[in-house]
Each structure stands twice: as structure tokens, then as C-alpha cells.
Specification:
Blueprint lengths: L8 H10 L12 H7 L17 E4 L12 H10 L3 E8 L5 E3 L22 E5 L2 E5 L7 H4 L27 H15 L5 E5 L2 H6 L4 H11 L9 E5 L2 H8 L6 E5 L7 H6 L5 H4 L2 H7 L5 E4 L1 H4 L14 H7 L3 E2 L27 H9 L5 E4 L2 H13 L1
Parallel strand pairs: 1-2, 1-11, 2-6, 6-7, 7-8, 8-9, 9-10
Antiparallel strand pairs: 2-3, 4-5
Helix pairs in contact: 14-15
């Protein structure tokens, strides 16, 4: 763990991660099916046999159709056939991990409607950003269980509000139990992509995420190199820490070029994401990470008018270091698409998502995060058959 990667590591990562758990049948588009549809090319492409290439990662589940990070969202993504399903984990006051995109739960739960918690509203600074609302670390698990999830962006996804209040905030251990149960029922593993949120922030509060996550992964046998899950973080130090605790593959998430990982800010490290995507930065990450999760704009930058420009060398450079690439995030709505793929004047109507997927897939990425797993799966099938 934490050693320099060998050049062929990326090519066998998928097979190593899946191992004996059923390498030929991951998800609806398992690798055997992917190889058949691509004339046998799947096993030779970046990512190996364990997952089809490009793999579809259900971003917070099927968040294009259900409120994010709910069992409704996770289950729908699984039923759609997503190859991997993402969770973000944050802690409760009493040390449990729950699935929320942020520790600020103001926009994603009905906490504001609970008068008994009115006094918990507060202002905090998280990773340099001042936020006013309610935060998971101020609630016990029992208290969080009294809340219900709701749609985070109702202005864009009004139909999702139909499901407001239907599901609780998922406890991460319950997600592991759900994945175990669904894996047995389906006869193949349920792959997960698990992100530590704000790990430096929580470490300073004495609520270190990595040991808690590692303990649960070990409890459910998901800590091995051949386990069907990734761990991911926007803070490289979190991935380095996890590599000392578990052997499952780690992914460094990368934001805009001029941004800095928060652990770099706290440590006085002057490097930016622009530095990390250079060959020397990728070589450094490859010492402890198995992949990167770049913002899609790092793969294909946008022009001033919002249309796609020319692809960067990131895919080639990352693959040269044995790193897989899982960029984020593709969504079907016009407002989230590059301008040339928008259709009509309604920003919340669907545009030509298939065209956008095709552009990103042609760069050679190994997978992509999407709010709309069904669309992404069809696009991936088209690409592999092409």
C-alpha cells in the first residue's frame, strides 16, 4: 500500500477488484457482455475485465429521478443497471456515518420543518466557506432518523419533489447491508463508489472519517483489493490514509484547475489542481491512488460560449501512470450540458445528452458519473458497439 504503481496496474484493476465475485456479470452491462458487444475489445481497454468500459457510475444513485442519497435513488440506479453506485459519507454527533452530499443538510432534508431542532441552526465555516444551516455532526443518529430527505435542486427537477419526505437519510452501514442483500439476490456484487466528505474539517473536530469507514468496510469484507468498491476523496491525504487501512482502490477527485484540495490549503501546499493534472502530479498521485475523478472540464475544457473545446492530454497522461479516470458529472438537462448539445429554450428540458456522452467517451475515459444512469448506459452501449 502507498507504493509506486507498476505500469500494468490500471489494466488489471477491474479484474483485481472484482476477483472471484463474478467478473463476468457486473451490473446489467457486465464485462463479458461488454466484450461481446465490443468484439472482445473490453478486456484490452483501460479498466480491465472487472467493469465494462466505459463504466456508468450512478451519481448519488439515480439523482436525476429521485432525491439524491436515498434508498429510492440507490435502488433505482441499481435496477437501471448502473455499474457502480456512489455514496458520500459524513458523521453524526455520535460517530455513525450517514450518506449526504454535504454535512449541511438544510437543502436535502426537512430539518427546517422540525421545530424541535430550530435551536440547532448555526453558522459554520467548512473548507473556507461560511454556511448557515443544520449540520450532521450536531445530530445523533436517532435524531437524524426523524428527518426525511427531499430534492436538492427542485427548481431544476420539480418532478423529483413528488418523493420529498418518502425516505430517511441512509445510514452507510445500512447501505452495505443493502448491497450485500442485493448482491446475493442478483448473484453478482453491487459495486459502490464511496467518498469521504471534508475529511480535514472532521479530523479537526476529532471525528476522523477514514478509520470509521475502514472499520465498516472490513466488517462487510469490502476492504480487499478485489472488493467491488472504490474509495474516493477530494483530499489526497484522505486516500493516502485509507491506503494504510484498506486495500480497495482509491480515487483522487479533482475540481477546477485553479482550485486547491482543502488539505493542501491547511498544510500550506501551494499546488493547485492544474499542478496535479500535469505528468508529475499524476505520478505523485499514482504512488497511493489507483485512479482520478476529474471534473469533466479537465478532460475537455469549455470555450467561452460554453461549447466543448479540444480534449486535453489528461486521459493519455493519467493512463501512462496506471491511473483509471472516472470524470464527473453528466446530467441530461440543458442547463448542465455544453451549449452545442442543448435543445430548445427550456433550461430544465433534456438536451442531446447522447451527443455529450459520446464526446466524453471518445477521449478514452474509463467511466463517468451520471445522474441519469439509464441514459448513460445506452450511450455506453452505443460507444462499445461502435
Amino acid at each position: 500500500m502507498g507504493q509506486e504503481q507498476q505500469p500494468g496496474r490500471r489494466l488489471v484493476l477491474g479484474a483485481a477488484v472484482l476477483g472471484a465475485a463474478g467478473a463476468a456479470t457486473v451490473g446489467t452491462g457486465g464485462s463479458a457482455l461488454a466484450e461481446e458487444r465490443s468484439g472482445g475489445r473490453g478486456k484490452d481497454r483501460h479498466g480491465g475485465r472487472g467493469l465494462p468500459v466505459p463504466a456508468v457510475i450512478g451519481h448519488r444513485g439515480a439523482s436525476g429521478y429521485r432525491p439524491e442519497h436515498t434508498f429510492g435513488s440507490y435502488q433505482l440506479a441499481l435496477e437501471m443497471g448502473a455499474d457502480v453506485i456512489e455514496q458520500d459519507v459524513v458523521p453524526t454527533k455520535d460517530g455513525h456515518l450517514v450518506c449526504r452530499h454535504e454535512n449541511d443538510i438544510t437543502a436535502t432534508t426537512d430539518v427546517a420543518d422540525h421545530p424541535e431542532f430550530a435551536g440547532r441552526k448555526t453558522t459554520k465555516t467548512v473548507d473556507g466557506q461560511k454556511l448557515t444551516g443544520w449540520f450532521t455532526e450536531d445530530f445523533t443518529l436517532a435524531e437524524l432518523r426523524t428527518l426525511r430527505a427531499k430534492e436538492r435542486i427542485p427548481e431544476n427537477r420539480q418532478r423529483n419533489t413528488l418523493y420529498d419526505g418518502r425516505w430517511e437519510v441512509p445510514v452507510f452501514e445500512d447501505v452495505l447491508k443493502w448491497a450485500q442483500k442485493e448482491g446475493k439476490r442478483r448473484g453478482r456484487p453491487v459495486w459502490l463508489h464511496i467518498e469521504t466528505k471534508h475529511p480535514t474539517y472532521f479530523r479537526k473536530l476529532g471525528m476522523e472519517l477514514e478509520p470509521r469507514l475502514a472499520k465498516l468496510l472490513r466488517k462487510y469484507g469490502r476492504h480487499r483489493a478485489d472488493s467491488p468498491n472504490f474509495v474516493q476523496s477530494f483530499e489526497p491525504s484522505s486516500i493516502r490514509k485509507l491506503k494504510t487501512l484498506v486495500d480497495c482502490p482509491g480515487v483522487c477527485l479533482l475540481d477546477a484547475p485553479d482550485s486547491q484540495p482543502w488539505d493542501f490549503v491547511e498544510a500550506g501546499d501551494p499546488r493547485t489542481v492544474a499542478d496535479l493534472v500535469k505528468p508529475e502530479g499524476l505520478k505523485w498521485m499514482a504512488r497511493f491512488a489507483d485512479g482520478i475523478g476529474p471534473l469533466v472540464d479537465l478532460v475537455i475544457p469549455k470555450k467561452d460560449d460554453g461549447s466543448l473545446g479540444e480534449p486535453t492530454t489528461l486521459v493519455r497522461d493519467a493512463h501512462a501512470q496506471g491511473l483509471i479516470l472516472h470524470p464527473y458529472t453528466m446530467r441530461n438537462e440543458n442547463t448542465f450540458l455544453p451549449t452545442e448539445f442543448r435543445r430548445g429554450s427550456d433550461p430544465n428540458a433534456y438536451g442531446d445528452a447522447f451527443g455529450a456522452f459520446s464526446a466524453y467517451f471518445r477521449t478514452g475515459i474509463d467511466g463517468i458519473f451520471s445522474d441519469n444512469a439509464d441514459t448513460a448506459l445506452l450511450a455506453a452501449e452505443d460507444f462499445r458497439a461502435g
